[in-house]
Amino acid sequence: TGTGAVLGAYVAPKSVWLHAMKGKGLEISGTFARRSGAVFMDLVFTNRALQVMSDFAIQFNRNSFGLAPAAPLQILTPLAPNQSTEVSLPLNTVGSVMKMDPLNNLQVAVKNNIDVFYFSVVYPLHILFVEDGKMERQMFLATWKDIPNENEAQFQIRECPPNPDSVSNKLQASNVFTVARRTVDGQDMLYQSIKLTNGIWVLAELRLQPGSPSSALSLKCRAPEVSSFVFQAVEAILKN
Amino acid sequence: ELDDGLDEAFSRLAESRTNP
Known about the structure:
- The complex is a heterodimer of chains A (240) and B (20).
- Chain A is mainly beta and 240 residues long.
- Chain A is built from three helices and 13 strands.
- In chain A, the strands form three sheets. In chain A, strands 1-2-3-6-5 form a five-stranded antiparallel sheet, with no helix packed on it. Chain A has a five-stranded antiparallel sheet with strand order 9-13-12-11-10, sandwiched between helices. In chain A, strands 4-7-8 form a three-stranded antiparallel sheet, with no helix packed on it.
- Chain B starts with 5 loop residues before the first helix and ends with a helix.
């Protein structure tokens, strides 16, 4: 970009969500991304059938965080056999809420002129980490103390970048904000905050082990069922 | 001097977590 090393938010590579075998020739691959404060489903539709496909539409089932398409699916021209088209579907989080198992499961229905197809995907929780998720230091300390110990979950992250600055920068690009940093007995401790789209705060302590690619992540949250999904997201961000 | 005591509070938190 010419502006130096500007880190972007982590986006997983696309994977196949609907195989052509199950989609009567329609193959859909996709991933989720957060860009400029908005969530997108980035999709590739491929026609592996022998007939033209048209009249595409998409719908989500109710889900844990109210994810819903913010606009109709824009595939405006018919898709010829062996043709692919990329589409970026903007999402919002004001849809109907229903707790899913796993929490980040999303059931999707796609229709075209041939049939309606259903598939399930899981989304990485960091697409729900909002840009104003940096908690005030005083609030962080009070909240950390206030959340009971039984709501603390501990995880091990392997393949963590070796120095606290790169860890902090990488995470901040995906809206995991470092509130404070301390070094105790040679260990770097990062205190971090995350806010989800539904207003849930997650407090983190990331302890980097000197000379080791492994680090310890402790998460405190009033809704502890989100912790393991936040861990998976943080681990994916740090590995990539 | 804007020391609000928070720097010290974070140091105590980190200490307590490393050497409980």
